[in-house]
Design brief:
The complex is a heterotrimer of chains A (460), B (158) and C (726). Chain A is built from 17 helices and nine strands. Chain A starts with a helix and ends with a helix. In chain A, 40% of the residues lie in helices and 7% in strands. In chain A, helix 9 crosses helix 13, helix 11 packs across helix 13 and helix 14 crosses helix 16. Chain A is mainly alpha-helical. Chain B is of the alpha+beta class. Helices cover 36% and strands 15% of the residues of chain B. Chain B has a five-stranded mixed sheet with strand order 2-1-5-3-4, with helices on both faces. The C terminus of chain B is likely disordered. In chain B, helix 3 crosses helix 6. Chain B has six helices and five strands. In chain B, a hairpin with a 2-residue loop joins strand 3 and strand 4. Chain C is α+β, with helices and mostly antiparallel strands and 726 residues long. A seven-stranded mixed sheet of chain C has the order 9-10-7-17-14-15-16. A five-stranded mixed sheet of chain C has the order 12-20-19-18-13. A four-stranded mixed sheet of chain C has the order 21-22-23-26, with helices on both faces. Classes of the chains: A mainly alpha (460), B alpha+beta (158), C alpha+beta (726). The structure holds FE2/S2 (inorganic) cluster (2 copies). One FE2/S2 (inorganic) cluster (FES) sits at the interface of chains B and C.
């Protein structure tokens, strides 16, 4: 298997997409048969006891938090849109919120998020409720065209109609923005949207959220937030060859768009099983927890745009749900590296002296030789999963793109070094950082960094 | 928010938002302009001060996070043995050009020889690479640190 | 040595002060028309003040007024040395003060305006300041002689004391203040024979550095006034853009923010301290109307420049018959391209202003005192004398502070306050994105090679003219030829009998260009020295020997080149992927040869191993400062060669701070050995020469190490890694 993996990694992007293409078609046809029998849904792990929402006697796990129950439809829709993190994907870099045009760079092409402002020509201004429900629940647009699962309708399908329509009401309350987004650029066969129809049959159940009577009210609220709205699984759950979520390894971690989403199962060693409730609470509500590092990249956005706006009860509900996810051991070091020595002379280093040279010039001022920042807790590396990940790609991404986070104390910024530092240098410093502050050094090459740059690049 | 800090051995009380970086408290509130602003993102070192003797970039350090730790600035570093030796070596070897970066250079160098009495080139690199000098005084900075640490100045035309 | 010597007003002297050259020719001003010792002196109560530069009080304290500004180059030490030398003053007691704004008294004799730049402080002031010192000395001696009723010829002076040789009677300068003030200043006082210099030529300690070690020094950014407000600004990110809309709400909510000022092309936030102002600015939601330059990007700029470089240009200099000679032998044509560069002075742009109905007071560090005063007077409508400019030591100049923009923007902020002083400090991002940029240049050189010798030589420079904007008379006065852009192209030291230099002016859209340390010679010397290496290779000759074969017309260049080859062990074996590169330059009336040794790894990463530099700058006023200036200049130039490039997209500068506008750091800096040659020739310029020297020598080292002939700056590591074609 691992040799197969090496063979695959060795391929050029084009070769790779061809392989993926064939693989997908084959997989779609073959795997799907088994799948219908064995493919578990996202909440299957919790066992039986699930009933239709209408038949559920406990507190309503869906909708907005209690504090907003009496808010206007638009206000409720706004909260739900944030909780579902619509902004991040439907806003281009530097563009107007919800006006679309954000590019997803995939191995087999580029697709652009649509404009979901109520503009009649370029947005969704003409959409009916039914059409909107179809898109969010089934991934089918107003013209009956299939959307690509970059739109997480496989998760949104768990949203109640009421919540979806509240989001629509909010979107329709926005100023229409005329913004024609570029056409998708996908290689055959991925440009054949009808294929998605088959895919959906197997991998995207059209079904609403079903509470679990055997679980607490908090768990059910957490489940709704995590599965229907925050769609954690879309990043954190590994995908199978057919690009579908493999819930057998639910939340065990996956790499998407050049960032690693880590294991958030209850596994103590490689997941979050060993995190205290406080730490989880801090992390989800502020994107930072002492000794666990700071959220960056997509998770940073999720916190800033979504989790940070959730009331404490909802965060606690999420934690209750996460705690119940079966432990899955992932291939990450089981123990995190301790604080590094204060002297540059001691501690783990790497062969490539350039890594240390860049660190001492551009990084040590904030992160220090120990990894514990003398300036801001947010800048402490010690204990962060990213530096304890031998892939090193999240470290490289942070170096390339920087980190821009809204913290309760104001903006927290790590500058981006991608423009002035070469692929070789970024690989070297990432390898040095994972070696010195992590459990195992990454082995990134200049070519790896070049590939990472491509994945996050927003083509103009 | 009223805050009291111990700066160069004196208690200074001032009113500032807790997230306000120490640099601006020093310069704009306390009028201690020896500490310089160069980049505001911890990339140049011009704003370096000592917190309990360790070099820290004051442009990002919230004044509210200093607590009761001792702050030393360029105005006070001459009172320390390491600081005085560095200042003397800087003048003996005529390191300084425009001088704007030099408060930070001197603070970083003083902290270095205080913690590493006989720094070699790798120690100097590790301690000084975070301090940019646009005038390019690096060659003499290296010589002066060695001089201050009691080393022989290498022949200049090596 | 013929042509090299005539400094007054030699072609070189004038041309290297290109703007000056044009300016002076245009108006037939003799060089040194200004600063005659009998000009009325300023603030001189109870002092002996024989001219604009020297003040001696009754205690004998000698204060010298600095006509040039100190930005690190050491001029506040070398100028006092020059005056004190002829004045025979006790140097240990000499103090200096900044000159006030006054074109009449303090205009730079080579520039014709009160400015510090072009590495000419010493060249321009060498004679007038010695004259000023010698004249004052003669007056003091005469005063003493009168008191003693003796022949002045029988008196000597040294260390601020006049001595009557015969009787040994002594009078200190302090005691002579009143008497000397009555003496009529003599004309044509003889100057010292250089062999009698007691100060000049000694590595004396700098006068400006002690306060720079303990935080006492006050730069413009350190100005502190009672009741002062603090502000920071954001100007339109696109040149010519306007504010479309600014939502002040959030900004005004920031604690400490006192005022939001929205002007047509910039916004400012005023607060209790910079931090409040900056947070306010971050919170201020501004939408810009980008205007005509909204679509400008770097590719567009290069397209236009490359097209321009194919046109025939104005002839700046020609001798022999270049066209004909180009037909003789193997013809080689190559082009060299230089990027936009920002100055990134360590002290970000700033200015403090107190604007009252009848007066405007300005605190800053500037290279152009008088221009700040006059442009401020225009902007405020106040009479010139009501505008007071307080200059400070500069936290770096590099040409950036030859512009008054930081003062004018600060005044525009002050116009919206009620007479309180306001300190306007730019963020580093604003500083990098609102610079005046070193222009992009394209230098195309054609030459023919025959039997290892260069026959024809045709050189075309294409680029912006900074002089045309900065000092128009110097441009028009020279038939629309910007002498700065062709400076070292005209002045090449090599024997080129059939020679032609053309210049094509091409102004980039959406960018204001400005002087950048090293100015014109940077692009000329880079192109010529890279080209010489490529010719040497074609001729199958060693780069040093090939140059020496073409340097017979310039013995001083020959000498520095031979010595640098020796000092750098030129020709001795090196490890694989390591190379030595050489460059020779004539710029700023200094004769410099440099060898850089560098290593290029398989990823195209470049490591500097060592630098040797030999300089003949004529009389070295302060050899220690000269060494420091060359070391610093070399680092400044090597930084640009390795990393320096400002790019534009949608009219906006993309770089912002040191994370993306990168600086060489101490751990990348190699040993730099500078050898200052002894010489009795008049002093040359130094401050910018190292900047010019570094890039071609490094590029040639890379050429030697890899065989890859880079022809663009900055060095492209992708090309060196073989991932991109050269
Ligand atoms: S100002 Fe703090 S490091 Fe530059
Ligand atoms: S001395 Fe000028 S920046 Fe360092």
């Amino acid at each position: 298997m691992s040799s197969l993996r090496q063979w695959y990694v060795g391929l050029s992007d084009t070769m790779r997409s061809v392989v993926i293409a064939l693989a997908v078609i084959v997989a779609v046809v073959v795997a799907s048969g088994l799948w219908m029998v064995t493919g578990p849904g996202p909440m299957a792990f919790a066992g039986g006891g699930r009933v239709a929402l209408a038949d559920y006697k406990g507190a309503d796990p869906t909708g907005v938090p209690a504090s907003l129950k009496n808010a206007s439809l638009v206000e409720r829709g706004q909260w739900l849109a944030k909780a579902a993190d619509c902004t991040v994907c439907h806003t281009a870099k530097g563009g107007t919120d919800y006006a679309g045009g954000f590019a997803f760079t995939l191995p087999f092409g580029t697709i652009y998020s649509p404009n979901i402002t109520p503009d009649k020509d370029t947005g969704i201004g003409n959409w009916t409720d039914a059409q909107f429900l179809n898109a969010v629940h089934k991934g089918i647009d107003d013209e009956g065209q299939h959307l690509y699962p970059a739109m997480p309708y496989a998760s949104y399908t768990y949203m109640t109609d009421a919540d979806v329509l509240a989001i629509k009401a909010y979107l329709f309350s926005l100023k229409p923005v005329h913004n024609e987004v570029p056409d998708d650029k996908l290689a055959f066969p991925f440009n054949q949207r009808w294929l998605m129809g088959i895919w959906n049959v197997f991998f995207a159940a059209d079904t609403r959220f079903r509470p679990d009577t055997a679980q607490s009210a908090a768990w059910n609220r957490g489940a709704y937030l995590a599965e229907a709205l925050a769609h954690c699984g879309e990043c954190h759950t590994p995908r199978n060859l057919a690009y579908a979520l493999n819930n057998r390894r639910k939340f065990a971690g996956e790499t998407n768009a050049g960032w690693r989403a880590y294991n958030i199962t209850s596994d103590r060693a490689t997941g979050i099983g060993a995190w205290s409730d406080d730490a989880l609470f801090q992390y989800l509500s502020t994107g930072h927890a002492l000794g666990h590092g700071t959220a960056a990249g997509p998770m940073g956005e999720a916190v800033d745009q979504s989790f940070s706006l959730m009331p404490p009860d909802d965060i606690r509900a999420l934690i209750a749900y996460l705690r119940s996810i079966p432990p899955v051991r992932s291939n990450l070091p089981a123990t995190l590296a301790p604080v590094a020595p204060a002297s540059h002379r001691q501690g783990v280093s790497i062969a490539d002296a350039r890594g240390k040279q860049i660190y001492e010039g551009a990084c040590a001022s904030c992160h220090s030789w120990t990894g514990v920042s003398p300036i801001l807790p947010y800048a402490t590396l010690t204990g962060a999963r990213a530096v304890n990940d031998p892939h090193g790609i999240n470290v490289a991404q942070a170096v390339i793109a920087g980190v821009h986070r809204a913290s309760p104390q104001g903006e927290v910024v790590m500058p981006s070094f991608g423009d002035a530092y070469s692929d070789t240098e970024i690989a070297a410093v990432a390898n040095y950082v994972t070696a010195r502050f992590g459990a195992k050094a990454s082995q990134l090459s200049a070519a790896d960094v070049a590939a990472l740059r491509k994945q996050v690049a927003q083509p103009q | 928010m009223t805050t009291t800090l111990r700066i160069n051995g004196e208690e200074k009380t001032f009113d500032a938002p807790p997230d306000m970086p120490l640099l601006w408290v020093l310069r704009d509130i306390l009028g201690m302009t020896g500490t310089k602003f160069g980049c505001g993102i911890a990339q140049c070192g011009a704003c370096t001060v000592h917190i309990d003797g360790k070099p820290v970039r004051s442009c990002l350090l919230p004044a509210g996070a200093v607590g009761n730790r001792a702050v030393t600035t360029i105005e006070g570093v001459g009172a320390t043995d390491a600081g005085a030796r560095i200042q003397k070596a800087w003048l003996d070897l005529e390191v300084i050009q425009c001088g704007y970066c030099q408060s930070g250079q001197i603070m970083s160098a003083a902290a270095l020889i205080a913690s590493t009495p006989h720094p070699d080139d790798s120690d100097i690199d590790a301690a000084m690479a975070g301090n940019i000098c646009r005038c390019g005084t690096y060659v003499r900075i290296r010589e002066a640190i060695k001089r201050a640490a009691g080393e022989r100045e290498e022949a200049k035309n090596g | 040595m013929g042509k090299m010597e005539k400094i007054r007003p030699s072609r070189r002297g004038v041309l290297t002060g290109g703007l000056a050259g044009g300016f002076l020719f245009a108006f037939h001003l003799p060089v040194y028309a200004v600063n005659e010792p009998n000009e009325p002196p300023d603030s001189t109560q109870g002092k002996f003040a024989p001219n604009a530069f020297i003040r001696i009080d009754h205690q004998g304290k000698t204060t010298l007024v600095m006509p040039q500004v100190e930005m690190g180059q050491g001029v506040y030490t070398s100028i006092p040395m020059i005056i004190a030398e002829e004045l025979d003053a006790d140097f240990s007691t000499v103090a200096f003060e900044h000159a006030p704004a006054n074109e009449k008294l303090y205009a730079n004799p080579m520039l014709g305006v009160q400015a510090t730049g072009n590495s000419n402080s010493i060249r321009a002031w060498w004679k007038p300041l010695r004259t000023a010192g010698a004249t004052a000395r003669a007056m003091l001696v005469a005063a003493a002689a009168q008191q003693w009723k003796v022949d002045p010829a029988g008196c000597t002076a040294s260390n601020s004391v006049v001595t009557h040789t015969a009787t040994g009677r002594k009078l200190g300068y302090g005691a002579l203040v009143d008497a000397a003030s009555k003496v009529v200043p003599p004309k044509n006082v003889p100057l010292k024979d250089p062999k009698d210099f007691v100060l000049i030529g000694k590595p004396l300690k700098r006068l400006d550095t002690p306060n720079k070690t303990d935080g006492k020094v006050v730069y413009g950014i350190d100005a502190m006034l009672p009741g002062m407000k603090f502000a920071t600004i954001a100007a339109s990110p696109v040149k010519g853009g306007k504010v479309a809309h600014a939502d002040q709400g959030a900004a005004m909510k920031v604690p400490g923010v006192e005022k939001v000022i929205v002007l047509d092309d910039m916004v400012a936030v005023v607060g209790a301290h910079f931090w409040a102002a900056k947070k306010g600015l971050d919170a201020l939601a501004v939408t810009w109307d980008d205007g005509a330059n909204a679509k400008v990007d770097t590719a567009m700029v290069w397209e236009e420049l490359r097209a321009a470089s194919r046109k025939t240009g104005l002839v700046a200099k020609a001798r022999g018959d270049a066209e004909k000679a180009l037909g003789d032998g193997e013809k080689v044509e190559l082009a060299y391209e230089m990027p936009f560069l920002a100055h990134a002075t360590m002290e970000p742009m700033n200015c403090t202003v107190q604007l009252k109905p009848q007066s405007c007071e300005i605190w800053l560090g500037t290279q152009i005192m008088a221009r700040v005063q006059s442009t401020a007077a225009q902007l405020t409508g106040l009479p010139l004398e009501n505008v007071i400019v307080h200059n400070h030591l500069l936290g770096g100049g590099f040409g950036r502070r030859l512009e008054p923009d930081m003062a004018l923007k600060a005044i525009r902020v002050a116009q919206h306050l009620n007479g309180e002083p306001v300190k306007v400090v730019w963020t580093r991002e604003e500083d990098i994105r609102h610079d005046v940029y070193r222009p992009v240049y394209r230098d195309v050189i054609q030459a023919s090679l025959k039997d290892g010798r260069i026959k024809g030589w045709k050189y075309r420079v294409s680029g912006s003219s900074v002089v045309a904007r900065w000092l128009p008379p110097a441009f028009t006065g020279n038939h629309d030829i910007d002498f700065d852009t062709v400076d070292s192209a005209i002045d090449t030291p090599y024997d080129l009998p059939d020679f032609r230099v053309e210049v094509v002016r091409c102004e980039p859209p959406g960018v204001t260009t400005g002087f950048w340390r090293g100015v014109g010679p940077n692009n000329n010397v880079f192109a010529i020295e890279c080209f010489m290496d490529e010719l040497a290779k074609k001729a199958g000759q060693d780069p040093v020997r090939f140059r020496l074969a073409h340097l017979h017309g310039s013995p001083r260049h020959e000498a520095v080149l031979k010595l640098v080859a020796e000092k750098s062990n030129w020709g001795s074996p090196l490890p694989p992927r390591v190379g030595r590169g050489v460059s020779v330059q004539p710029s700023f009336a200094s004769y410099i040869a440099t060898v850089v040794e560098a290593e290029v790894d398989h990823n195209g990463e470049v490591a500097l191993r060592r630098v040797n530099c030999v300089v003949d700058t004529g009389i070295a006023v302060n050899p220690d400062t000269i060494e420091a200036q060359l070391q610093g200049g070399l680092i400044f130039g090597l930084t640009a060669a390795l990393y320096g490039e400002v790019t534009l997209k949608n009219g906006r500068v993309q770089q912002s701070n040191f994370n993306d506008y990168r600086m060489l750091r101490i751990d990348q800096t190699p040993p730099i050995a500078v050898h200052v040659m002894k010489s009795g020739e008049p002093p040359g310029g130094i401050g910018e020469t190292g900047v010019t020297a570094g890039p071609p020598a490094l590029r040639n080292a890379i050429f030697a190490a890899t065989g890859i002939p880079l022809r663009r700056l900055p060095i492209d590591r992708e090309v060196l890694a073989g991932r991109k074609p050269a």
